[in-house]
Amino acid sequence: MSRPPSRPRMMCARVLLLLSVTGLVLACETGPSSGDYEQAVMQDRVQRDMQMREKESVLPPGRREAFRGLNFYEVDPAYRYTVPLRRFETPDTVMIPESTGDLRPQQRIGEVTVPLPEGPEELVVFRGEGDTPRGRLWIPFADSTNRHATYKGGRYVDLTSTDSDSVVVDFNRAYNPTCAYNPDFACPLPPPENRIAVPVAAGEKRPTFGG
């Protein structure tokens, strides 16, 4: 007759079973959440591309037929950060140069530090004054991908507030200013303090036009 397993062996078996189940649960929680995030970003990109093809888009009629679609870097969760927003005690309004040579008022409300793969970067956060939808928090930035891979005038990233005084800076959702598609539009240019020396290989690239 076989002897029943000893108590220590039974406890070890239960621990192993618990660890296995826990691992499966964690795998299920981690995998789909990452996949859901990527899918959400991709859906937003498809929607933006479709909007560009509409008759009411910012594309001038002469360029609409030549438009070949938006281009993006692959979605990389490493470029999505939840970071504290260090608010200035006294936000000030500055005049930011625009692509057309004019100036536009923007309120400097604070700064964030984003831990880019090449090292942390401090960026100034703005709130647009009377400029829909720039009334929300946003960061105009330039990086070393400009001109050869992304729009020469820099890009924008809108921030999402969290329950605490932190914000989500998601460069996978970085997008070109309107003047990248229609030079008649006046677009704020990234200020010197938001010019990043390293590449931000995430978000929207230069658009493609044929002809």
In brief, what are we looking at here?
By secondary structure, the protein is of the alpha+beta class. The chain is 24% helix and 27% strand. The protein has two helices and eight strands.
What is the helix tally?
2
Silhouette: globular
Q: Could you state the order of secondary-structure elements as H and E?
A: HHEEEEEEEE
State the helicity in percent bands. Answer: 10-25%
Counting DSSP E segments of at least 2 residues, the number of strands comes to: 8
Distance between the termini: 85 Å
Q: Radius of gyration in whole Å, from Cα?
A: 23 Å
Largest sheet properties: 5 strands, antiparallel
What amount of the residues lies in strands?
A: 25-35%
- Average predicted local confidence, pLDDT: 84
Biggest sheet, strands in spatial order? 2-3-4-5-6
Tell me the structural class. Answer: alpha+beta
Which parts are unreliable, with pLDDT below 50 for 5 consecutive residues or more?
A: 1-32
Keywords: Signal
Protein name: Lipoprotein
InterPro entries: DUF1684 (IPR012467)
Organism: Salinibacter ruber (strain DSM 13855 / M31)
Key features of this structure:
211 residues; 8 strands; signal; 3-stranded antiparallel sheet; disordered N terminus; 5-stranded antiparallel sheet; DUF1684; alpha+beta
Structure description:
- Keywords: Signal.
- This protein has a domain of 127 residues.
- The protein is 24% helix and 27% strand.
- The longest helix has 47 residues.
- The N terminus is likely disordered.
